[in-house]
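Internal ticket - ligand job 354, adenosine-5'-triphosphate:
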Amino acid sequence: MKQIILTGDRPTGRLHVGHYVGSLKERVELQESGLYDEIYIMIADAQALTDNAEHPEKVRQNIMNVALDYLGVGIDPEKSTIFIQSMVPELTELTFYYMNLVTVSRVQRNPTVKSEIQQRGFETSIPVGFFCYPISQAADITAFHATKVPVGEDQLPMLEQCKEIVAKFNSVYGETLTEPDIVLPGNKACLRLPGIDGKAKMSKSLGNCIYLSDEPEEIKKKIMSMYTDPNHIRVEDPGTVEGNPVFTYLDAFCRPEYFEEFLPDYKSLDELKDHYRRGGLGDVKIKKFLNNVMQEELRPIRERRKSWEARLPEVYELLKAGSEKAERKAAETLKEVKHAMRIDYFDDGNLLKS
Ligand code: ATP
Ligand code: MG
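stdout (structure tokens):
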């Protein structure tokens, strides 16, 4: 069986370091592993419109931003096909057929949909399109016969829902669709990176992000103002490491060699954590160290992003070519789906056959 990756992001803002550790970094590793036959990376503009119907400009403007973020982290257009969701109308048609295989109560039970409805204040007025986005996500994944979907932890319920749709479709219409597996980051701190305000998730919609394109001064300002342990008031007070975002970021980004370079008094992150727990280690010292770490990690991404930004017509061309390639693939799958459902009336005069 071919090994195929499908994943993507909503163009609702520039991508941030949560996206990076939660999914982008993994994608680049998978891309470089050479184990995959095809890789599709989707800019999910149609999905973004499900809760931004009145802000199409915002979605449009962020398409280039997200494409540049992809190229910045090292997505290689020679190895991965980057495409725009709405340029592949087959995905919408697949969604329409899959809708018949899912109940309203099943979508209502999806914990990610539940929390997003709350977060967006949709309780009494949920747009139907937004409600159905897990089904459209199943269409995106299955249209490419994806076997692996590298995404953040909040996408687990979407993958479960997708697997159910695949099973249902195959049992009703015959073996057609491929069941995908989720690929989560191995590092626990990366599953759901908290915001700089200490909120559970760094998210474009919450405005608590360090963006991949932030300039060094902005990064520093954000890190120095980060939420830490609120009970760690004086340097000598014992501090809490668990749930402290400064340490979560260090868990996510720090490499052992950074100690020698920036904080030679300590040999490892464990040693630093122990000192913080005992007391006598100030937040400013740790934040300065974290700033050095983040500057090192983000500099090459920002520079590569800038070099692509200077060549926007090339980015435009690769998005266009990628969207065309993605459409060809999705059209093949749609044909298989319609054949399985026996709604391929005009292929070989099928309608005349019993
Ligand atoms: P929005 O607020 O518009 O939903 P978002 O910041 O949640 O934006 P998405 O485009 O919905 O971003 O998510 C893109 C990918 O990044 C998904 O795979 C998601 O699981 C992952 N992701 C998003 N935020 C985080 C985070 N804080 N930590 C780890 N992974 C994340
Ligand atoms: Mg999201």
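Auto-summary: Residues 312-340 form the longest helix (29 residues). The radius of gyration is 22 Å.
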